[in-house]
Design a protein that fits this description.
single chain, about 400 residues, alpha+beta, Serine Threonine Protein Phosphatase 5, Tetratricopeptide repeat, Immunoglobulin-like, 5-stranded antiparallel beta sheet, 13 helices
Length: about 400
């Protein structure tokens, strides 16, 4: 838009300046005007990205060499047939008339934002599909790279650049861009969650100190963040720490998830438990609901020492009609330093909470077992049917 306006201003200015001097030669455009028009076109092509800087310079040099003789002839003719309206030669008037708009264009291209109009649409990169829109994503990435080089403090452009690189599977470069956003804005969960994922992918599944700090910061704000917990579960699985991986997945399943996401996490948990094997002690609880629970209810299954309120192990899942199977073992303990085998005896509590809160309420559906002795070989199965509290 700016380039086009500049060209128009140049042409209008040339017309005003040259018209009084060209009344006897108005049959054809001057070589100078044609030269300047073509230079403006080359500048516009450079701004659009149709030409590289090297191509632009070469074409401009070739153009100058080809029209220079014509310009010199025009100047000689003007000297032999002067029609002055002032004491300033025509060539100087042309240069003066063009100095402001052409100089402004040069300054804009050097220090301004030639991609501004196009970058106004750059947020659409967040919705593009890397499978079908890869070339468009690449163009956005290149424009955003130019912008961040020119404006290194523009955190929004860094954020969009990071997403463009993520969609292009450039994980290390994406993580670096998210790091730049963090440096400019400080910790932000919306940035941290992507920063953690890209660092994890770039490191082939390794969680280093920086990634661990990002994960802990996110979990401090949202303890059941499924994305963060899945990243940690994958890292633990990779290291052969299957019980720890299962604990992370159990926590992730406690959150509100889409059915497809829950199914994927359950599949991961099943695979992790298969790698663990049937370790003891364990208590398998099969829970059936006598009625359909209120929407949004949660099912809690926990084991605690008799007479205590703080659970040793707990599993939380959505309360759904039908039968739900839950395993309480060392993968479900809240503190790995206090395994189920250290309890001596536990009581199992099963309840449906309408509020979804861990704290018990009077309207909970509830069942509680007698104390169950626990040792390193305990393997128990319980069948529980829950009903709403009687009115």
């Amino acid at each position: 838009m700016f380039i086009g306006a500049t060209i128009v201003v140049c042409l209008v200015t040339l017309t005003i300046v040259l018209f009084p001097r060209r009344t006897e030669r108005a049959a054809s455009p001057s070589a100078t005007a044609l030269y300047l028009n073509r230079v403006a076109e080359l500048d516009a092509e450079l701004a659009r990205g149709d030409l590289t800087q090297a191509e632009h310079s070469d074409l401009k040099d070739e153009l100058g060499a080809s029209v220079l003789p014509d310009i010199e002839r025009e100047q000689q003719s003007a000297a032999q047939n002067p029609q002055p309206v002032s004491g300033v030669p025509t060539a100087w008037l042309v240069l003066i008339a063009l100095a402001l708009p052409v100089g402004g264009a040069a300054t804009y291209l050097a220090t301004g934002e030639p991609d501004a109009d196009w970058l106004a649409e750059s947020a659409s990169v967040l919705q593009l599909d890397p499978g079908t829109d890869r070339s468009t994503i690449r163009k956005f990435e290149e424009a955003l790279e130019r912008r961040t080089r020119a404006m290194p403090d523009d955190h929004e452009s860094w954020y969009l650049l990071a997403h463009a690189r993520l969609k292009l599977d450039e994980f290390a470069r994406s993580a670096a861009a998210f790091a730049s956003v963090n440096a400019l804005t400080g910790p932000d969960p919306r940035v941290d969650v992507y920063w953690l994922q890209t660092r994890f992918l770039a490191a082939d599944g390794v969680i280093d100190e920086t990634s661990q700090a990002i994960a802990e910061r996110l979990l401090a704000q949202s303890p059941n963040d499924a994305v963060v917990l899945e990243v940690l579960a994958l890292a633990a699985f990779r290291d052969g720490e299957f019980a720890q991986s299962a604990r992370y997945l159990q926590r992730a399943l406690a959150g509100d998830l889409l059915p497809s996401r829950r199914a994927a996490l359950n599949a991961g948990l099943a695979e992790t438990r298969a790698r663990m094997g049937d370790v003891a002690p364990r208590i398998d609880v099969e829970v059936s609901l006598a009625e359909t629970p209120p929407a949004g209810s949660s099912l809690f299954v926990l084991a605690r020492r008799p007479g205590e309120r703080m659970p040793l192990a707990v599993v939380r899942v959505p309360a759904e009609p039908g039968t739900t199977s839950v395993r309480l073992d060392d993968a479900a303990v809240m503190n790995p330093a206090a395994p189920l085998s250290s309890a001596g005896a536990v009581e199992v509590v099963v309840r449906v909470s309408r509020s979804g809160m861990a704290a018990a309420s009077e309207d909970d559906w509830r069942w509680q077992s007698e104390p169950i002795p626990i040792d390193s070989e305990t393997a128990r199965e319980l069948a529980v049917t829950l009903s709403p509290p009687s009115v």
